[in-house]
Amino acid sequence: MPWAVALGLLAVAVAGAVLLDDPTGSSTDRGGDWVRAVLGRWQRRILLAVGGALLVLTAALLPLPPAPLPGADDTLESLSALLTVLCGAVAALLVPAARLARPAWSALPRGMRPWAGGWAAVPVLALAVLTGAGFGAGIALTVRRVLGRQDLVLPAGYSAVTLVWGAGGALLAAAVPVAGAVLAYRRWRLVRGRGEAPVEVPVLHPTLAEQAAVAPAWWRADLMRNHVHQVVIAVAGVLVTLVGAMWAVHLADVTLPPWTRTVSAFGVTVLAALAGGLLSAVYRAARQPDAARQLGQLWDLASFWPREAHPAVPPAYPLKVVPELVRRAREHLADQGSRVVLVGHSQGSLLAAVATARLLAELPPADRERVGLVTVGSQLLWAYPRAFPSVVPHSCLAELSGALGGRWRALCRGTDPIGGGVTTWRRQSFEGSLLGIGFRADGTEGALPPATASPDGALVLGGDHWLPDPARGPSAGRRWHPGILGHSDYQADPEWDRAVAMAAGLGVGNGLGNGLGLGNGRHAAPPAAPAARPVD
Predict the structure, then answer these.
(1) Of 130, 229, 349, 417, which has the maximum CB count within 10 A?
(2) Other CB atoms within 10 Å distance of the CB of residue 136
(3) 3-class SS letters over 316-371
(4) Cα–Cα separations (whole angstroms), residue 228 to 196, 220, 223, 251, 383
(5) Residues 90-131: pLDDT tens digits?
């Protein structure tokens, strides 16, 4: 009887998910209109209240049997096997797709190629599955301990999941001190001037004292951009290997030794720490604006991509934001004496780039010269084409740069662990000059002229404006923040106005205006200076 009721509820949930998909009504085929009409606001509240009451009554009144429910082990094993097969199927299907796409990016430098050769979705999926399974097992084991009912027999698969997390956590705990010692040694060498600093540092900061002060921040940012994805892939690889070993032990019907119980208990601790970290992040986001901004970045990143990539999140907001942004820009372009510069910070740079591409495709050739783009602290080169090569390929960025003809400017800081260079790569220092390869104004790619220094101390190489961080001394009419700024307060740098002016095609100068600003995601950035025709 309990299983029949559970299957019935599952069928209702599946039907509701199918019929109530597309809650915004963007699809022309809405088969669940009658369900929405029946389930009004009060009806939904009543259903939620009844469901919550049933859950509480069941937990409070139903006696807990000393043995597991019949079929619980078989159900858990079946679900685990299906999830394993699903991950394996995705991995197998991505292999030919990655191989077919290889010619499109094989000529790119190694630091610009897709992560894991275009196969990075597999470790991410495996981590998601293992995290969900681990939380479920960890909560069940923790609740049993809290209730003091060690006589309750849970499915054996719960211990297997926590054993995987315990073994993975132990390996990670053993690797962290080694990695920490290596990183501390490399940082010590940089501080003492014995290590090799990024090539931009000696050109942007001429004195040895400045180089010693900023080189560790540049190094940490490079470490984040270049190696975090490798850590994720390595962790997923270790956990998947342990899962394979657990399946082999289970199929061989091998009895695990008693010491594995300690490892399994450590796995519960690891999962509890992970859950506690997530809850702490939510709590800090509610109390601290900076923490809320960081959590918002993850949300913006997740909810940007189409629902086909992750059906569990709300509809992708660019379907609404990008057309509205294009429509607003066209309203200002209706005045033949106006120019529009779209400015996007961090995740907003992707929105601004997409809107600019659509705007250029809709405008007549004569009006395209009045459109410019400024990306600030952007991930458009080092992250998005590598994580999502089929959605934001390098070829699209090259095409957009060629269509703008030099009116794509990017503000960058080497101390920014999230943003980086957008229009240049393979940068190197030669006889005190910064050289590199990147997008040219004529739409081609190749070697660029040496970087030039702006009046405010920035280095301009191609379309990238590398800002000194810390910024030069206080500027008249601008707020100034001492210390390393990293990913924040790009508007405070005087180079902001200069980049906007160049993107607008108005030549080089200060105080010439601000464009249509997109903050970190969907939030508007405040204007840095007045404009001839601002689009806020």
Answers:
(1) 349
(2) 16
(3) CCHHHHHHHHHHHHHHHHCCCCCCEEEEEECHHHHHHHHHHHHHHHHCCHHHHCCE
(4) 20, 11, 7, 35, 11
(5) 999 999 988 998 998 888 888 899 998 888 889 999 998 999
At 470-507, the pLDDT tens digits run 877 776 666 777 778 888 888 888 889 899 999 998 86
Cβ contacts of residue 515 below 8 Å, gap of 6+? 340, 341, 342, 343, 372, 374, 500, 503, 504, 531, 534, 535
What are the pLDDT digits (tens) for 140-184?
A: 888 777 777 766 777 778 888 899 999 999 998 899 899 889 888
Is the model more confident about 92 or about 43? 92
pTM: 0.79
**Which tokens belong to 259?**
């010491």
Identity of residue 387: A
- Which uninterrupted H or E stretch holds 89? helix 72-105
Residue 33 has pLDDT above 60, yes or no: yes
Q: Is the Cα dihedral 483, 486, 489, 493 positive or negative?
A: positive
Average pLDDT, the chain: 81
Q: Which residues contact 499 (CB under 8 A, 6 or more apart)?
A: 374, 409, 410, 411, 465
Q: Is the dihedral of CA 270, 275, 279, 284 positive or negative?
A: positive
Output the pLDDT for position 511: 38
509, 498 contact by CB (below 8 A): yes
Apex 198 CA angle, 194 and 200, nearest 5: 125
What is the C-alpha separation between 457 and 517, in angstroms, rounded?
A: 24
What's CA 476's distance to the chain center, in Å?
Answer: 36
Tokens read off for 21? 């998909």
Q: How far is CA 181 from the centre of its chain?
A: 28
Task: Please choose, from the candidates 264, 88, 33, the residue with its C-alpha nearest in 3D space to the C-alpha of residue 170.
Answer: 264
CB 535 within 8 A of CB 339: no
Check residues 344 and 59 and name the one with the higher pLDDT: 344
DSSP 525: P
Task: Please list the residues that pair with 445 across neighbouring strands.
Answer: 439
